[in-house]
C-alpha cells in the first residue's frame, strides 16, 4: 500500500479551508487524523476512469463548437461569398465578429448558473440549441440573416467553454492539469498516468477541427435539388452537433462532489488529492460579491490578456488561413485540404509540450517558447515571397498559437485557488478569448487580401505582448514564492505554504 503522493509545493493537507469556502457535509476529514492510505494501483485506476469519462465527451462537443464557430471561411470559399455577398466590403468581418459580442458578455452569468443547473443538463442543452441554430444557417438568404444567427450562436456558446475549463480544473491536481487541458482542447484523447502516456484515440478539438476544412469541402459537393453546396456544410454539421448534444445528456459527468460514476472510495480519493494539492476540494459558490472581490486581483487580468493574445492568432488562422492559401494561388479544394496538416502538427506539438510542462511543473517558459514559434511562423508567412516558405510558416504559427491556449488555461488554473475563484477566472479569461476573436476579425481586413499584412503584424504584436506579460508575472511570482520560503509576507492566495507555479 502506498499513500497519495504529497505535493512538492510545501502544502500540507491539514491547512484550514479558505475563509470564503462553505462546509460540505459530503466531504469532511478530521485534520488531526492522518489521511487514509490509498493504493497506487487504485489511484491509477481511478484517474483512468475519470479521464475516460470526463474528457472525451466534452472534447467531442467542443470540437464541433470550434467547427461551428469557425466554418465561415469554408462557406465563403464554397459559394456563400458570392451568394450572400460575404466577400463584399466588411460583410465577412462583421459576420465573424457579431458572434463574439454576446459570447464575451455572457461568460460570467453563464458560470454563475452552471453549477446550479448541473453539467449534463446545462452543457447538453446549449449544445443542442446551437446545433439547431447551425442547421438554420443552411437556409439563410442574406448575409444579415447569417450575422443574426451568428449572434445567437454566440449567446449559446458563451456558457460552454468556460464551464468546461472550470469543471476540468476541479478534478485534477495542478501538476497534471496542462496535459489534460491539451488533450481536451487540442487533439488526442489520452490516458495519462503519472509515468507514461498511452494514446488511446486520435480525437477531437483542434485535431478534429483541422479536418473540418476537408469535411466542409466534401459536404459542399452534395447536390440535392437547387440547394447550393455551402448550405450543406451548415446543415450536416448542425445535425452532428445535435446528435452529440443528445449523447451529452447521458455521458457528461458533473463536479467531483456531485458525480455518480465513481464509487464512494474513488470520490474520496479525488477530493483528497485536490485538497492536498491546493486546499479547495470543498464547494465554494460564486456570488456577485465574490466576483467583485476577485476582479481586484491584477494577475487574473494578466491571465485574461495572455489568453486574448493566444486566441487572436488561433481565430485569425481559422477564419483566414484557407483564404490566405487561396491568395497564394491554390485552388478552392487545395486551400481547404492544405489547411488540415498545420492543425495536426499543432495538436501533436501541444500535447507533447503539455506533457513536458506537467513533468517539470513549469508553465511560463513553455508559453514563451510557443510564442516564439508563432513569431517565426508569422514572419515566414508575412515576409517571404516563396509559397512553400509561407505555407511552412503556417505550421509554426498554428503550433505556437494553438499550443498556448491550453498552456495559458493551465497557468491560470495553477495559480489560483477556491472553486468560486475558478468559476470567475475561467469566465474572465475565456471572455477575453472572445476579444481575441473580435481583434482577429477586424485586423484581417478585406482590402488587405490576399496577404493580410496588417493582420499578420497585429498577430505578431500579440506574441510579443505574451512574452512581456510572462516576464512580468514570472518576476512577481518568484518574488512572492521567495517571501513564502523565508516566512515573510502574506500567504499566497490566503493559504500558508501555497506557491505559485512559474
UniProtKB/TrEMBL annotation:
Q: Which GO terms describe its molecular function?
A: transmembrane transporter activity
Organism lineage string: Eukaryota, Fungi, Dikarya, Basidiomycota, Agaricomycotina
Where are the compositionally biased (Basic and acidic residues) regions? 14-31
| Entry keyword set | Membrane, Transmembrane, Transmembrane helix, Transport
Q: How does it sit in the membrane?
A: Multi-pass membrane protein
What is its subcellular localisation? Membrane
Q: Does the keyword Ligase apply?
A: no
Tell me where on the tree of life, at the top rank, the source sits: Eukaryota
Entry's Pfam families?
MFS_1 (PF07690)
**Stretches the record annotates as Disordered:** 1-33
Task: Provide the protein name.
Answer: MFS general substrate transporter
Listed under GO cellular component are: membrane
Transmembrane portions of the chain: 50-67, 87-106, 118-140, 152-172, 197-220, 232-252, 300-325, 337-354, 366-385, 391-411, 423-442, 454-479
Instruction: Determine if Transport is one of this entry's keywords.
Output: yes
Amino acid at each position: 500500500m502506498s499513500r497519495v503522493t504529497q505535493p512538492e509545493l510545501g502544502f500540507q493537507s491539514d491547512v484550514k479551508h479558505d475563509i470564503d469556502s462553505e462546509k460540505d457535509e459530503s466531504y469532511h476529514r478530521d485534520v488531526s487524523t492522518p489521511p487514509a492510505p490509498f493504493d497506487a494501483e487504485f489511484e491509477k485506476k481511478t484517474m483512468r476512469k475519470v479521464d475516460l469519462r470526463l474528457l472525451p465527451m466534452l472534447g467531442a462537443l467542443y470540437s464541433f463548437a470550434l467547427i461551428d464557430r469557425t466554418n465561415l471561411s469554408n462557406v465563403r470559399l464554397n459559394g456563400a461569398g458570392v451568394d450572400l455577398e460575404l466577400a463584399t466590403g466588411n460583410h465577412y468581418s462583421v459576420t465573424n465578429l457579431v458572434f463574439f459580442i454576446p459570447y464575451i458578455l455572457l461568460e460570467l452569468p453563464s458560470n454563475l448558473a452552471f453549477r446550479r443547473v448541473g453539467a449534463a443538463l446545462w452543457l447538453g442543452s446549449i449544445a443542442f440549441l446551437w446545433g439547431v441554430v447551425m442547421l438554420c444557417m443552411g437556409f439563410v438568404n442574406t448575409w444579415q440573416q447569417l450575422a443574426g444567427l451568428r449572434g445567437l450562436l454566440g449567446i449559446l456558446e458563451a456558457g460552454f467553454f468556460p464551464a468546461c475549463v472550470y469543471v476540468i480544473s476541479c478534478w485534477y491536481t495542478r501538476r497534471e492539469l496542462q496535459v489534460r487541458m491539451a488533450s481536451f482542447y487540442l487533439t488526442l484523447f489520452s490516458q495519462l498516468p503519472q509515468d507514461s502516456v498511452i494514446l488511446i484515440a486520435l480525437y477531437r478539438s483542434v485535431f478534429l477541427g483541422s479536418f473540418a476544412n476537408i469535411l466542409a469541402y466534401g459536404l459542399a459537393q452534395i447536390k440535392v435539388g437547387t440547394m447550393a453546396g455551402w448550405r450543406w456544410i451548415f446543415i450536416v454539421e448542425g445535425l452532428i452537433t445535435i446528435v452529440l448534444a443528445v449523447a451529452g445528456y447521458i455521458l457528461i459527468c458533473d463536479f467531483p462532489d456531485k458525480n455518480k460514476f465513481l464509487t464512494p472510495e474513488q470520490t474520496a480519493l479525488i477530493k483528497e488529492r485536490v485538497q492536498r494539492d491546493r486546499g479547495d476540494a470543498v464547494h465554494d459558490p460564486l456570488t456577485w460579491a465574490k466576483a467583485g472581490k476577485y476582479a481586484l486581483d491584477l494577475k487574473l487580468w494578466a491571465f485574461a490578456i495572455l489568453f486574448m493574445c493566444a486566441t487572436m492568432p488561433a481565430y485569425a488562422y481559422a477564419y483566414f488561413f484557407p483564404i490566405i492559401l487561396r491568395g497564394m494561388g491554390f485552388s478552392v479544394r487545395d486551400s481547404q485540404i492544405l489547411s488540415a496538416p498545420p492543425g495536426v502538427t499543432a495538436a501533436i506539438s501541444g500535447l507533447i509540450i503539455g506533457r513536458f510542462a506537467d513533468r517539470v511543473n513549469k508553465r511560463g517558459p513553455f508559453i514563451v517558447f510557443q510564442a516564439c514559434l508563432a513569431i517565426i511562423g508569422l514572419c515566414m508567412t508575412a515576409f517571404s515571397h516563396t509559397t512553400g516558405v509561407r505555407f511552412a510558416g503556417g505550421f509554426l504559427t498554428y503550433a505556437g498559437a494553438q499550443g498556448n491556449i491550453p498552456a495559458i488555461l493551465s497557468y491560470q488554473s495553477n495559480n489560483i485557488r477556491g472553486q468560486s475563484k475558478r468559476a470567475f477566472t475561467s469566465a474572465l479569461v475565456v471572455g477575453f478569448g472572445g476579444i481575441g476573436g473580435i481583434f482577429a476579425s477586424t485586423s484581417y481586413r478585406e482590402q488587405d487580401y490576399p496577404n493580410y499584412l496588417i493582420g499578420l503584424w497585429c498577430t505578431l504584436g500579440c506574441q510579443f505582448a505574451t512574452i512581456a506579460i510572462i516576464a512580468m508575472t514570472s518576476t512577481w511570482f518568484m518574488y512572492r514564492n521567495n517571501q513564502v520560503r523565508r516566512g515573510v509576507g502574506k500567504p499566497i492566495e490566503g493559504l500558508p505554504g501555497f506557491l505559485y507555479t512559474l
